[in-house]
Amino acid sequence: MNKSSYITLVVAFFTITGCGNDDSRSNDTEQSPLLGAWLTESCEPAPQNETNVTTRWAKSYYEFTSFDTIRIKLELFSDSDCTLNYTTHETEEPIENPIPITYLDTGELLLQEGISGGGMTINFGVAEQQVSVDAFYTINQGRLCFSDAFTFEVLKFGISDIGQAEIDFENCLTRP
Q: How many angstroms separate the first and last alpha carbons of the chain?
């Protein structure tokens, strides 16, 4: 067998065996349970602006996108129960996160005291000011709750305690 026939045979072998069913690749197509929109459970007074002194109330939407980013949007309401959407004659731009926030769902694991959940890493900041934090989450009865390392609140997103692994069941989001 000459050298070019041998190379062709090797390439054909790897092409054929590479096209088989590879179970390790099935994880690449699995979707994170975090994907989609989540809403803060609490309704809080919204910040006032110069043109509007009417009391407004707010909830925040946290959207975990398939592009591994987290989009945060503040939704305004007219009532303290956050059931009546706030409307004005003026067009108000939605308040969204100005700093890029990305996440990585690191997969399922068993958390403290037998709670099933997953691990995640969140990165945020710009240029040289990047912050990366590892923490945990669990989804139980339609509530997405995070470990103490993250704060997902109406008017605040951030790091509360680096390295804390216990789930904070007061720090949860729900599906809208």
A: 66
Per-residue pLDDT tens over the stretch 25-75: 334 446 889 999 999 999 898 877 676 667 888 899 999 998 899 998 888
Instruction: Give pLDDT, residue 150.
Output: 83
